[in-house]
């Protein structure tokens, strides 16, 4: 499949780079990769089809200010958990999935896509470049890459499968497809730090699969985990002891949940579940594993006249003696999506899809607060990952 990519002018948005960005900012800056979905648009809680390009962007945080530098027009998607970027361990490449696209026969309709792209991160005039693109199953979503950086696991939400993709140089090859099942909704996959297991959320049938990894041999374990209604976003702490999963619930205004999974137990199991509010879209551990951030949509994607409507909330949790402990929260924004901590865990960037902006929050011990710093984008920010 051949796809034409366009490097947009700086005025459009901005993207990526790698050591590409030597010359951008100093050593004290943090750089992030962010995707924007040009089709995703909400008008008073009603989904509309946007008409601006999808992009991959490089965002820099320096001196408490967010700046946008480059952008590349390429297939991306908001649909699925906000985990559609995976940066390879060498930080020279990134993988980006696109779960949806415009219907070529109807510009007012969105249909499943099947695209995954390999983006080279470099320097100079062309700081990023799509070097390979392949088609997988329908709706590729929250992917993960192994420790060696030579294998990616990609859930295909609409296809009910997981693709095993080999990364060799600048070439992607699908080596295997694991069938999860029709209407299981494989959503996001994460790999344990020791590389021996992966956890896969399935919001279609309310389960979390365990995959066993032995080199390039990946098999589906018979054991599944039941955390809550519609498990969706998931993350594993840096030690590999715990995983957290956000359970979306039924989307009917009820308070939904987040669950804690103890991976040190054999087999792994849920050890705690807490209420977080309507629709926990994304969950992430801080780099040191001591904090957990949750983007809670909280009815902000519903019409203002709805009794379920409310401002979005960003909540901060910790783990205390094997239990989830609520710490603090910030209210504000609408239709929150992904988040990314700075390496020191003192700041977090939060994607606000409805307002098409990235919000900067500060963390002081157990308290999260709003700095008021915003970076406007030209489409809906969905996934954001710390890069360098």
Residue share in helix: under 10%
Strand order of the largest sheet: 1-6-5-2-31
Distance between the termini: 31 Å
Number of strands: 31
Q: Largest sheet, described in full?
A: 5 strands, antiparallel
C-alpha Rg (nearest Å): 19 Å
The whole-number mean of residue pLDDT values reads 92
* Contiguous uncertain segments of 5+ residues: 1-27
Question: What can you tell me about this protein's structure?
Answer:
0% of the residues lie in helices and 57% in strands. With 388 residues, the chain is mainly beta. A five-stranded antiparallel beta sheet has the order 1-6-5-2-31, with no helix packed on it. A four-stranded antiparallel beta sheet has the order 7-8-9-10, with no helix packed on it. A hairpin with a 5-residue loop joins strand 15 and strand 16 (197-202).
Q: Which tags fit this structure?
A:
disordered N terminus; globular; 0% helix; 31 strands; mainly beta; five-stranded antiparallel beta sheet; 388 residues
């Amino acid at each position: 499949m051949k796809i034409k990519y366009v490097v947009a002018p700086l005025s459009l948005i901005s993207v990526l780079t790698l050591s590409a960005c030597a010359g951008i900012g100093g050593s004290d800056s943090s750089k992030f990769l962010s995707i924007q979905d040009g089709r995703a648009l909400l008008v008073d809680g009603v989904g509309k089809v946007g008409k601006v390009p999808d992009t991959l962007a490089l965002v820099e945080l320096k001196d408490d200010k967010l700046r946008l530098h480059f952008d590349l027009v390429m297939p991306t998607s908001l649909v699925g958990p906000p985990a559609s970027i995976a940066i390879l361990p060498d930080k020279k490449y990134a993988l980006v999935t696109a779960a949806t696209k415009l219907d070529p026969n109807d510009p007012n309709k969105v249909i499943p896509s099947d695209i995954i792209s390999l983006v080279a991160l470099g320097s100079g005039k062309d700081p990023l470049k799509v070097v390979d693109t392949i088609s997988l199953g329908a709706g590729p979503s929250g992917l993960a890459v192994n420790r060696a950086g030579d294998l990616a696991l990609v859930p295909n939400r609409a296809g009910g499968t997981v693709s095993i993709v080999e990364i060799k140089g600048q070439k992607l090859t699908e080596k295997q497809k694991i069938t999860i099942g029709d209407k299981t909704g494989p959503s996001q996959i994460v790999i344990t730090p020791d590389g021996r297991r992966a956890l896969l959320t399935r919001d279609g049938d309310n389960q979390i699969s365990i995959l066993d990894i032995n080199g390039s041999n990946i098999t589906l374990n018979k054991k599944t985990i039941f955390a809550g209604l519609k498990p969706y976003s998931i993350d594993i702490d840096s030690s590999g002891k715990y995983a957290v999963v956000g359970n979306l619930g039924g989307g009917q205004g009820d308070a939904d949940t987040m669950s804690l999974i103890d991976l040190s137990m054999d087999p792994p199991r849920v050890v705690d579940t807490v209420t977080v509010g309507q629709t926990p879209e994304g969950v992430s551990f801080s780099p040191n594993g001591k904090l957990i951030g949750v983007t809670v949509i909280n009815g902000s994607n519903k019409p203002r006249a709805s009794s379920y409507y409310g401002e979005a909330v960003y909540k901060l949790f910790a783990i205390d003696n094997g239990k989830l402990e609520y710490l603090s929260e910030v209210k504000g924004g609408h239709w929150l999506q992904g988040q990314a901590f700075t390496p020191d865990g003192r700041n977090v960037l939060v994607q606000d899809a409805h307002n098409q902006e990235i919000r900067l929050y500060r963390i002081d011990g157990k308290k999260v607060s709003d700095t008021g710093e915003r970076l406007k984008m030209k489409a809906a920010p969905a996934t954001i990952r710390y890069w360098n």
